[in-house]
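REVIEWER CHECKLIST
Item 1: Sequence provided? yes
Item 2: Single chain? yes
Item 3: Sequence as submitted:
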Amino acid sequence: MASHVGEVAPNILSDPRVKFLYFAADVTGEQPRFDYLLRDGLSEQRLGMTLLRQEGVLDHLERAATSKTAVQTVLHGREQE
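Item 4: Structure as written out by the authors:
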């Protein structure tokens, strides 16, 4: 589980079935570079938005929201006729 670990971790730290592992990233360049070396514990890095932006997810969501708004405008306009 990668998202919202900070919120969930305090509730499951003592659960013997759960082990927290992470790998570090160098974020000095344009894209994060991961070392893929597992470390015990929780990462202090917060890269979620960076990765979503890098993979184009935010652009896709923006286009979907704009498209949905356009469809709603057309449908709402037809309801008024």
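Item 5: Key structural point noted by reviewer: The chain has a mean pLDDT of 79.
Item 6: Recommendation: ____
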